[in-house]
Amino acid sequence: MSNNIPTRFPDLAPKGPSGELLLAAERAKTSFDVKDLSRFMYTKKWLDKMTQITEVLESEPAFDKTNRYYQSREEKISTSLWKDRRLTELVKEQKWSETETQIANFLFDQSTPFTLHYNMFIPTLRTQTTDEQKKLFLEPALKHHIIGCYAQTELGHGSNVQGLETTATYIPETNEFEIHSPTLTSSKWWIGGLGKAATHAIVMARLITNGKDFGPHPFCVQIRSLQDHRPLKGITVGDIGPKFGFNTVDNGFIMFEHYRIPHVAFLAKYSKVKAGSGEYVKPPNAKLSYGTMVFVRANIVMGSRFALAKATTIAIRYSAVRQQFVDAANPRKWDNKIIETPVIDYTMQQYRLLPAVAATYAFFFTGREMLRLYDLNQEAMKNGNFDLLADLHASSSGLKSLTTTMAISSIEDCRRACGGHGYSNFSGLGQFYQDYLPNVTWEGDNYILTQQTSRYLLKTFRNVVAGKAVPSEYNQTITYLTQYLENPKAKCPATKPADFLNPELILSAFGFRAAYGIAQVAEQIDRHGRTWNSMLVEIARISKAHCQFVLVRNFIIGLQADASLSTPERRPISNVLKTLSALFALYTMEQELAEFLLPGYLSSEQTAMLKAQVISLLDEIRPNAVGLVDAFALPDYFLHSALGKYDGKVYEAMTQMAEREPLNHTQVVQGYEECIKPLISQGQAEGRWRQDGLLQVASKL
Amino acid sequence: MSNNIPTRFPDLAPKGPSGELLLAAERAKTSFDVKDLSRFMYTKKWLDKMTQITEVLESEPAFDKTNRYYQSREEKISTSLWKDRRLTELVKEQKWSETETQIANFLFDQSTPFTLHYNMFIPTLRTQTTDEQKKLFLEPALKHHIIGCYAQTELGHGSNVQGLETTATYIPETNEFEIHSPTLTSSKWWIGGLGKAATHAIVMARLITNGKDFGPHPFCVQIRSLQDHRPLKGITVGDIGPKFGFNTVDNGFIMFEHYRIPHVAFLAKYSKVKAGSGEYVKPPNAKLSYGTMVFVRANIVMGSRFALAKATTIAIRYSAVRQQFVDAANPRKWDNKIIETPVIDYTMQQYRLLPAVAATYAFFFTGREMLRLYDLNQEAMKNGNFDLLADLHASSSGLKSLTTTMAISSIEDCRRACGGHGYSNFSGLGQFYQDYLPNVTWEGDNYILTQQTSRYLLKTFRNVVAGKAVPSEYNQTITYLTQYLENPKAKCPATKPADFLNPELILSAFGFRAAYGIAQVAEQIDRHGRTWNSMLVEIARISKAHCQFVLVRNFIIGLQADASLSTPERRPISNVLKTLSALFALYTMEQELAEFLLPGYLSSEQTAMLKAQVISLLDEIRPNAVGLVDAFALPDYFLHSALGKYDGKVYEAMTQMAEREPLNHTQVVQGYEECIKPLISQGQAEGRWRQDGLLQVASKL
């Protein structure tokens, strides 16, 4: 018998009822039109495109996910490059628009060496270059004649961009800049696409001209030969090594040794260095770029919705299939026989999962609102009106922080809620957690971002106190602060659990709680002279409180204001979304209970009502659990999860994926001859265990 | 120039002050004798052994960690087998005792295919076999003539052991058992060591004899040939595939097709099946085995202390080296020049890390106390006294749940507190998180375990109410419940922040809060008829509240009762531990604030004092931060972390480890010719980018 016989499972069915039947029963319980809820969120057009592109990708070997969970780092990089190249061809063959290409990348769901070329290199070249530079850099980048990355972070500097060490010194004699890395810590680090793929990099370096340091500015620098891809002289470049996740990307380092680049490499749309004299020309007002940050963050919020959608789809479907124990007080029956209880029927499982489903919809409504306000604000700024900007920008910092922190935590909660199998990579949740995690650090560290939001909240509070701020539709912060100052001893009016379903009661509570926290911090700093540093813990809390208010409000108001939800056909959808908005708000209130109790706003009797209402909402949503995640419309190709399969064939998928494990391609493991056989054969030599099989051994005793 | 030139960093120093100097400055601030605190925790003897064994391992190629973060799954398995074999030799060469072997495994810090042979196979054979079976199975197992594993969990059944499907039917005709897997879900799954290494397995299967099903019982089953390691006929066995972590272990599956084993394979120390008649003989009282569970869980608590110790050592050392921004209100100076502030000086960073340091010591005192009570209880049970057992066993369930949940969450908090570099595997925290994670699932799922604790708490509450339980030194649960019932409207007596440092005040508060929660749940269930399922959320909360009481109490009482801490020389150590115990208690109180506010026990004024006291404790502990983690005495070999190195040479280590990345062994990446060159060369063909280097290109424009 050869050693290369792959292991195959016997052809047996799982213990019944099967996952297929269980999920069908769940789907029959759904109170609303699942497909219509998908259309409400994505539009029919987008869904049709997604279906069509999924079909294309499923037949493309370069986009095949079958081997995704078994690859070594080197295999990950080379298959990613394959996908990158094939995508450039597919875009042409299929005539995909930018949106369609984005959908393809969304479905593939894995970053690659070219990801930063599209997400950072090209956008930077679009916004920060002169026309001459667009010809020189942007045009070839769009054609993939050069491949770029964005090199900002250094080994010693992340959040503090002003502390970057790499220098770019203007040399008037040759009209060049000299890029230099003065220390080990000045090595660029973490730069996606730089490690192995990029030919060019946007390098953020301290501009030094005429002996003066003007701080970090962007330069477009060629780093590898266009003939043979070797690093150019004066450059040390490579991959920074294995990471917790994101190992399909070649995050890299680069160091420069007095490396010369021409004057035209300095991206000169805003600030300029005059050729010859080296005179520095300052950029105009930087406020405009805040708009872009809002846009990026709105998209991160929308992205965190997909993260939650993916995690909850997997966990909820599997929880409806997986049965464990019999709930004696309320045994589940199937064909008149008691079966083990599907774990989704346990309140604790619902408490762990359903609020995350609710949060998915909450993120959707807030992301949509952020994009709406972004458009409004861009329009307003064109007319010189910056009124909207401050609140929008400040909230976007805290919302990026809060939603990504919530999303990553929910992914892990969902993974654990899948029990032991959540730990298998076949769950689709492990690598996903690892790959999503950088979201809490990039585009602003989540802790540091809260300071931006809180600084604005404190400033607004002082303005409201001084009578210098007037409530407006576009500034709810001023509104809730004003209301608080009018009645800082307010109490929650609830007298029965159902009162907690009242949207006005909910919004008042969240507004009051945020305002109370802000007032406390302002008092500590302004009256008691506490330092900013000593208040950082509370500063993070008020940012969170404010952003929870925003999430709750956008969910509630979004439902009320959306005309497309007010038709009779959509009443069931509108109803289930209302229930979810209540769950999201009340579950959040329960998690943050101390901050509602502290000002005496909520009493312990009301807390008991609140908790009862949360449990009763879980109960109400429970029959729609599978329908609600089905509505996220995430295809199996996207999920690539044994536990989250639409058809519920969980155990079949687990065993099929185990058969593909490379270790199972041979019967006897590598290392047996050297490491196991010598030990065992000693026993054989001693004569006790000469025969195979316990039967014979035992009979010899 | 060949493509195989490895990438090397230039010989540059990091920006000063260096990590070495910064850590030296931290160490000079320590108020106590670091080495003496290590001795207090571990004993001098254990520390000496560890030092000695570390030296041995550092010169053993099979124990080398250099390539640990770069290996594919197959490499992980084969190098793990190499370590397993070499360890069997080292034990003989070095004449290591069991403790010394454990220290070697602790230092190696990675599970292997043989881990379950030692941790489950041998212990099961020790405790559940007859003398005949010890000769047949245990003796060869101890000599590694057979390699075993423990096969309980199935694809469809984890926590619910009674639901296992695999059958073992007694065949009187041949005096055999027939092991059979009736369904796909009955496949054994997750079994460490089974996938590729084991020759034998303890299989938990439903015993069926004379047509009656007696539920799961253990059998010792040979599964692979001792001649050539191939699976025996009737067996399908293999590796379950890649996991979130633990990929150095061959977790496996196995299915049996009417597989016969002899009568002697049934582990017959407790229950028996009579040969011939097949008559089943019941085991004696199962209570005795609860003692073993307490022992296992006490060791998990002690293990979670090491998990925290490792994570905090890395995060604190790196936080003392890493500088970011200047704290304008309190700039840090070095040689009279302002430098960027080491991040450990930011209150938020202290708030994220120092409570985890305090928890490490808290887990130590509770683990020690659990082991002491375990010994006491074993002694008492021998004398027929089961008084201690119930409280000890119940608390151990919740403590396993709470401490492992806290540990895993702290590992991740520490990883994030390391900023971007925490995401690099070189931090030592990523793979560590992945490998530690199963602790929240195995030995009882952490959510399910809380139900065991709470069931006991509710029962005890009812007994106290009925006057059937009397407070005793060994049952603090009865004590705090009795106190609560005497004064259910008690209030916290604190009138100034310093009052919160009073150990009695702290213990009363935690006791009251636990009792209040228990009373509420009892009322809901006993008076309002709420089902157990509908109360699961609160049931988890009271288990946590009780275990936090236990952790706080063991820390405080442990310090008070330990004579070895009362000498004048150890006063500084005693002082710093007292401060840590206060931080642990008050930080926990702040995290669980709602439960202290809800019963009206704490007022909002007192909360402000509490929060102020927490910040002031952080400030007090801050100068000892590095000393406190140094005292954990974890060698660099154990940590294997660039960020956590004792000498603070963080950036040197990061770059050295990056040089070893396999992708950096060649200058041009695999995939360039097929995927990148075709794209770029189109640009070359168009004539725009014919020359290398931007200089030439630009000059042509």
TrEMBL record, chains A, B:
Compartments where located: Peroxisome
Note the InterPro entries from the entry: ACOX_C_alpha1, Acyl-CoA_ox_N, Acyl-CoA_Oxase/DH_mid-dom, Acyl-CoA_Oxase/DH_mid-dom_sf, Acyl-CoA_oxidase, Acyl-CoA_oxidase_C, AcylCo_DH-like_C, AcylCoA_DH/ox_N_sf
Name the pathway: Lipid metabolism; peroxisomal fatty acid beta-oxidation
Q: Which residue positions are annotated as catalytic?
A: 443 (proton acceptor)
> Which SUPFAM superfamilies is this protein grouped with?
Acyl-CoA dehydrogenase C-terminal domain-like, Acyl-CoA dehydrogenase NM domain-like
Q: Name one GO cellular component term.
A: peroxisome
Q: Name one GO molecular function term.
A: acyl-CoA oxidase activity
Positions of the Acyl-CoA oxidase/dehydrogenase middle domain: 149-257
Q: Which PANTHER family match?
A: ELECTRON TRANSPORT OXIDOREDUCTASE, PEROXISOMAL ACYL-COENZYME A OXIDASE 1
Designated name of the protein: Acyl-coenzyme A oxidase
